[in-house]
């Protein structure tokens, strides 16, 4: 049933240091264009960029209120223009994401991508200012919303536990910035800092653009011509430096929870190339990445210790988390079970059949990415950020070739750092 | 060959092929050229089926809360001890399942060996294996799942809301059950539910991908009976009063800001066709009332009454219809006052024709975005089937909705009458620092 994909990929430099990664395909009803800036994740600027995305979403010169901006999108067949701040390892990504229906599916053949890009330009390059700064009432309102969001971290105890583990494990490393950011830091953002962050995007921050849809790379490049963005260097992702803790920290905190939340943080000793990263992803699938992993089959199914216990790799940072929930008082037993399964894998305790299954799962994921052109285009953007290019076929070939000893090497990259338990407290 | 019905909507270039396999299973195929294919098998058996007749004239059968979800977990067991997930993984497939109030769905996604994976799926739901031991083992796992959900404030506020709005209807109950109710489950209960509900005539197989309908039929021929017995089960639902049980419930939780949930209780239309019109009308009504382009959301957002954490949805299922509106806000009573004023006004004056037509276009366009994905398409087909329609029907209902009809539905289902609305509020714990 496998079908040769009907798409072509082309990278085009539209301005010095700004590259468009275009995936042309006729198979889909919708198109996507993502313009993405990358800045180092820093405590001083993390919440500033987050606030910036919220303030830019409030309106622009042409559409001065959020309602005006949302109505403009509705009139474009519910076009979506989403401005977000996310993280990639120790980088912060500020993205302007346009999603629209292909022109062919509008009643009048309306050029939605062209109009969507024009809307993006309005929001990004002609923001609503007062005396040279962002409108203070919008800024104050969004500061409150962002502060509320930060304070609401306590609501989701599973996510809260992961943030607390990162805080204790990564201390002052940039990776812990989201966990260290407080509502007070947001309150202290000045108009100057917000404007400086905005100007940094326009003048210096590395930027990449991904497009997926029916238009050619040349057509899209033409729609993007003349962006008022200064020439800049292209972004390069670097291999994270390995942190080697001298001993494992175990942190226990309490909260109003029924279930003990466990997060086990590991450092991943450096990986230099795609082969090592692929071997690690196969290890992850064996260990805690699927319904046939050791954490699922042995810790959950055989021992009945938890409902959810799975691995969360972050290769861009070089860390791995095992997160799970178990009955109050069972936290230490769960830690021992997880560590025992890891130890088995470091000694090669897996079969060829298990490795074969993991390869098939990984290959399924590689192939499936092609069904989302935006995802496929983003993979190419990430490759460009690494200065690499790996086709789907090459990635599949590498996965198929990985040997058992490479899986053992991958397992031995796991260095325990911090184990965090959020346990229930007794109420009087 | 079964009689296959092809339905096409040219404006969105979508086509569905639907037929009934000789076993009685309904099959719906959405052909798309993709690398992956997705299949979901849906059984009309969910947490609302706590009381039922196996056949007309039967005595009412009552089962503990959480059986449908428990059954979903246990369907992945096999008598010979082979792990079903391993069988899927051998083919590189990803598999999962979920249970709702009205149905249970088993699904997989793959980029290769679709036929083999479909055999596994059909084998799974037709060869149950339950023992005291394998039930006992699952109690701890599902117990942890229950505890995990209970730790989420959304679970608490929602349960408080449904308990306030409904006196008798099983919508009050958790899909997972409780540790106490699932401890009552026996192999006999599970086998009884399989015999009653896991009948191909009570199931839909929704598939999306580059697939051959004849091949789908051949696999169903291999795995399913030639002709399943008639499906005779009847869900027994209580006579739920029209008014809410309790108007307002308040509680505390370890959260940062107050959370508010409102339920507007409605009467479920008797006719399936009326149900479909009601669902379509309220998709448009909710876009008008609470959409991000609407006056209500933007005014309250600008005034700082609400932030981004605000939403609404309409549910119509199993004789139970309601609208739920949720918000996180510092002043719940102010939000509620604004909300009820808005509803009172709109029930009287509604929206102008231009606003209505724009909302229709927005709802229609939003429905197109998922259709690029095999997973989202297959799941959308399954959802529509549980509502008694297909996704193309659902789109047509929206396209043909008139302003007058939508207003009539609004008045019928979102009355501001205080006796028909329930409020649930969670406040931050007073002693939380």
Key traits:
heterodimer, A: 428 residues, alpha+beta, six-stranded mixed sheet, five-stranded mixed sheet, 16 helices, 25% strand, B: 433 residues, seven-stranded mixed sheet, 15 helices, 15 strands
Give a written overview of the molecule.
With about 425 residues, chain A is of the alpha+beta class. Chain A has helices at about 45-55, 65-75, 110-125, 135-150, 155-170, 175-180, 185, 190-205, 215-225, 275-290, 295-300, 330-345, 350-370, 375-385, 390-400, 405-410, and strands at about 5-15, 20-25, 30-40, 80-90, 90-100, 130, 135, 205-215, 250-255, 260-270, 305-315, 320-325, 415-425. The longest helix of chain A is centred in the last third of the chain and has 17 residues, at about 350-370. By secondary structure, chain B is an alpha+beta fold. Chain B is built from 15 helices and 15 strands. In chain B, α3 (about 115-125) runs parallel beside α8, α9 packs across α12 and α9 crosses α15 (about 405-415). The mean pLDDT of chain B is about 95. At the A-B interface, α2, α4, α11, β11 and β12 of A face α2, β7, α4, α10 and α12 of B.
List the helices and strands and how they pair.
The complex is a heterodimer of chains A (428) and B (433).
Chain A: E1 7-15, E2 18-25, E3 30-40, H1 43-56, H2 66-75, E4 80-88, E5 91-101, H3 112-125, E6 129-130, E7 133-134, H4 136-151, H5 157-170, H6 177-180, H7 183-187, H8 191-203, E8 207-213, H9 217-223, E9 249-255, E10 259-268, H10 274-288, H11 294-302, E11 306-314, E12 319-327, H12 331-346, H13 352-368, H14 373-386, H15 392-401, H16 404-411, E13 414-424
Parallel strand pairs in A: 2-8, 9-13
Antiparallel strand pairs in A: 1-2, 3-5, 3-8, 4-5, 6-7, 10-12, 10-13, 11-12
Helix pairs in contact in A: 1-4, 1-8, 10-13, 10-16, 11-12, 12-16, 13-15
Chain B: E1 5-9, E2 14-20, E3 26-31, E4 37-43, E5 51-53, E6 61-62, H1 67-74, H2 84-90, E7 94-99, E8 104-110, H3 114-126, H4 132-150, H5 153-165, H6 179-182, H7 187-197, E9 203-209, H8 213-223, E10 234-235, E11 248-253, E12 259-266, H9 272-290, H10 295-302, E13 310-317, E14 320-328, H11 332-349, H12 353-368, H13 374-386, H14 391-399, H15 403-413, E15 421-428
Parallel strand pairs in B: 3-9, 11-15
Antiparallel strand pairs in B: 1-2, 2-3, 4-8, 4-9, 5-6, 5-10, 7-8, 12-14, 12-15, 13-14
Helix pairs in contact in B: 3-8, 9-12, 9-14, 9-15
């Amino acid at each position: 049933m496998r079908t040769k994909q009907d798409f072509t990929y082309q990278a085009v430099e539209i301005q010095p240091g700004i590259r468009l990664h275009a995936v042309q395909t006729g198979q889909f009803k919708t198109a996507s264009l993502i313009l993405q800036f990358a800045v180092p994740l820093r405590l001083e600027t993390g919440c500033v960029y987050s606030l910036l995305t919220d303030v830019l979403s409030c309106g622009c010169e042409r559409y001065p209120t959020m309602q005006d901006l949302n109505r403009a999108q509705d009139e474009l067949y519910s076009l979506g223009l989403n401005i977000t701040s996310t993280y990639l390892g120790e980088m912060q990504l500020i993205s302007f994401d346009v999603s629209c229906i292909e022109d062919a599916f509008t009643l009048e053949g309306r050029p939605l991508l062209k109009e969507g890009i024009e809307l993006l330009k309005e929001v990004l390059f002609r923001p609503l200012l007062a005396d040279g700064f962002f409108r203070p009432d919008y800024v104050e309102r969004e500061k409150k919303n962002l502060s509320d969001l930060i304070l609401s971290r306590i609501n989701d105890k599973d996510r809260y536990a992961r943030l607390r583990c990162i805080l204790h494990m990564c201390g002052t490393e940039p990776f812990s910035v989201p966990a260290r950011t407080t509502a007070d830091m947001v309150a202290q953002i000045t108009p100057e800092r917000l404007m400086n962050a905005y100007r940094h995007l326009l003048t210096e921050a590395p930027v990449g653009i991904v497009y997926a849809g029916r238009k050619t790379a040349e057509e899209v490049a033409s729609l993007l011509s003349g962006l008022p963005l200064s020439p800049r260097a292209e972004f390069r992702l670097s291999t994270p430096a390995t942190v080697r803790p001298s001993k494992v920290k175990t942190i226990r905190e309490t909260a109003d929870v029924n279930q003990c939340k466990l997060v086990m943080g590991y450092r991943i000793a450096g990986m230099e190339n795609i082969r090592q990263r692929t071997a690690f992803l196969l290890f992850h699938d064996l260990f805690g990445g699927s319904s046939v992993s050791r954490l699922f089959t042995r810790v959950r199914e055989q021992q009945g210790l938890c409902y959810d216990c799975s691995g969360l790799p972050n290769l861009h940072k070089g860390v791995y988390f095992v997160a799970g929930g178990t009955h109050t008082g069972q936290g230490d037993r769960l830690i021992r079970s997880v560590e025992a399964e890891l130890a088995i894998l470091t000694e090669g305790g897996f079969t060829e059949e298990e490795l074969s299954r993991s390869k098939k799962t990984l290959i399924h994921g590689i192939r499936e990415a092609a069904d989302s052109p935006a995802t496929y285009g983003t993979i190419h953007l990430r490759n460009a950020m690494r200065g690499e290019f790996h086709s789907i076929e090459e990635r599949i070939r590498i996965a198929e070739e990985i040997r058992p000893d490479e899986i053992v090497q991958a397992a031995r990259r796991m260095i325990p750092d911090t184990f965090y338990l959020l346990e229930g407290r007794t109420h009087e | 060959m079964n009689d296959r019905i092809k339905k096409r909507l040219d404006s969105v270039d979508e086509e569905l092929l639907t037929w009934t396999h000789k076993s009685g299973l309904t099959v719906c195929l959405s052909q798309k050229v993709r690398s992956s294919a997705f299949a979901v098998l849906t059984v009309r058996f969910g947490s609302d089926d706590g009381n039922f007749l196996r056949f007309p004239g039967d005595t009412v059968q009552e089962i503990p809360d959480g059986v449908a979800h428990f059954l979903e977990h246990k369907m992945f067991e096999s008598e010979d001890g082979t792990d079903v997930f391993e069988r899927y993984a051998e083919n590189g497939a990803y598999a999962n399942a979920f249970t709702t109030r009205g149905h249970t769905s088993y699904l997989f996604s793959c980029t290769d060996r679709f036929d083999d994976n479909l055999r596994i799926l059909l084998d799974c739901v037709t060869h149950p294996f339950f023992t005291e031991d394998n039930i006992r083992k699952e109690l701890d796992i599902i117990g942890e799942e229950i505890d995990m959900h209970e730790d989420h404030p959304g679970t608490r506020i929602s349960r408080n809301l449904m308990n306030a709005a409904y006196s008798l209807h099983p919508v009050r109950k958790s899909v997972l059950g409780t540790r106490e109710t699932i401890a009552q489950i026996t192999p006999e209960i599970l086998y009884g539910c399989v015999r009653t509900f896991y009948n191909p005539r009570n199931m839909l197989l929704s598939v999306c991908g580059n697939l051959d309908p004849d091949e789908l039929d051949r696999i169903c021929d291999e795995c399913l009976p030639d002709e399943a017995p008639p499906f005779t089960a009847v869900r027994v639902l209580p006579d739920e009063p029209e008014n809410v049980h309790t108007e307002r419930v308040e509680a505390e939780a370890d959260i940062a800001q107050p959370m508010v949930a409102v339920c507007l209780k409605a009467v479920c239309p008797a006719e399936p066709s009326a149900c479909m019109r009601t669902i379509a009308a309220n998709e448009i009504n909710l876009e008008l009332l609470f959409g991000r382009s609407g006056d209500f959301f933007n005014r309250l957002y600008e005034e700082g009454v609400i932030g981004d954490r605000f939403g609404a949805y309409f549910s119509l299922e199993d004789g139970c219809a309601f609208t739920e509106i949720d918000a996180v806000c510092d002043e719940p009573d102010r939000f509620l006052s604004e909300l009820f004023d808005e509803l009172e006004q709109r029930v009287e004056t509604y929206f102008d024709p231009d606003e209505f037509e724009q909302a229709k276009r927005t709802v229609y366009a939003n429905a197109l975005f998922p259709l690029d994905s095999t997973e989202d398409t297959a799941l959308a087909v399954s959802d529509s089937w549980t509502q008694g329609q297909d996704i193309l029907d659902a789109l047509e209902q929206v396209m043909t909705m008139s302003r007058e009809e939508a207003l009539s539905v609004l008045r019928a289902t979102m009355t501001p009458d205080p006796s028909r609305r329930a409020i649930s509020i969670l406040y931050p714990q007073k002693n939380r620092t």
